[in-house]
């Protein structure tokens, strides 16, 4: 798998859909950052540096955690875009469509974090390797709704055998764009984030295509 082809596939999927991708990104991050920030402000007002502020920051963190499934819906929407499916901004709320889906998605996130942290306790490098191995779990979960959380993680590990380094290099290839986005005071992230996320969706599709070729 070539990184250049992955990124070209992402640009092809985003062609004539950049406006949608930017709006989707804006809405997602506005909700994810805005709701916790608003709750913190309504409860505490402006920060005072007191002990009360700490407890309210904790409350904001809890709300942020509860909104994590929103990001996975974001990933899924752009995966559908890669597949040529019709998508709309409201699709970013798909993970909230049922209590079962919501809590399973949240559980998947928490379990991958726990596994990664446990490996990181041993050494930093094993933790990074495991995080790469678990990177496809959310896509696997989306495509296989009957899978348990652990099954999704296990399948991700299997898919990533031999591809973790390529995935790592793919992520590194966006560092330059990230620096440029910071120069624009973060505005450029509205374009960079969907570009990166769509590239990850293309990567997943290529993983599955490679697996199908091997099976034949």
From TrEMBL:
**Residues of the signal peptide:** none
* Keywords carried by this UniProt record: Membrane, Transmembrane, Transmembrane helix
Keyword Membrane listed: yes
What is the protein's given name?
Answer: Integral membrane protein
List the InterPro entries: DUF975
Q: Where are the transmembrane segments?
A: 20-39, 59-77, 106-129, 165-193
Taxonomic source organism: Priestia megaterium (strain WSH-002) (Bacillus megaterium)
On whether Membrane is a keyword of this UniProt record, the answer is: yes
């Amino acid at each position: 798998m070539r990184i250049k082809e992955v990124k070209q596939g992402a640009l092809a999927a985003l062609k004539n859909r950049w406006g949608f991708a930017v709006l989707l990104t804006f809405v997602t991050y506005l909700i994810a950052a805005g709701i916790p920030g608003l709750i913190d402000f309504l409860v505490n007002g402006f920060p005072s540096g007191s002990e009360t502020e700490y407890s309210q920051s904790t409350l904001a963190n809890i709300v942020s955690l509860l909104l994590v499934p929103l990001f996975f819906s974001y990933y899924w929407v752009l995966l559908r875009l890669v597949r040529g499916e019709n998508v709309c901004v409201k699709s970013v709320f798909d993970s909230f469509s049922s209590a079962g889906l919501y809590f399973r998605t949240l559980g998947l996130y928490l379990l991958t974090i726990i596994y990664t942290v446990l490996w990181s306790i041993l050494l930093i490098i094993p933790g990074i390797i495991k995080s790469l191995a678990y990177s496809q779990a959310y896509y696997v979960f989306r495509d296989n709704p009957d899978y348990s959380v652990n099954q999704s993680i296990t399948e991700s590990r299997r898919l990533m055998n031999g591809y973790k380094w390529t995935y790592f290099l793919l992520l590194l290839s966006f560092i330059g764009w990230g620096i440029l986005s910071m120069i624009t005071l973060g505005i450029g992230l509205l374009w960079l984030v969907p570009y990166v996320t769509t590239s990850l969706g293309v990567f997943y599709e290529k993983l599955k295509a490679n697996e199908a070729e091997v099976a034949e």
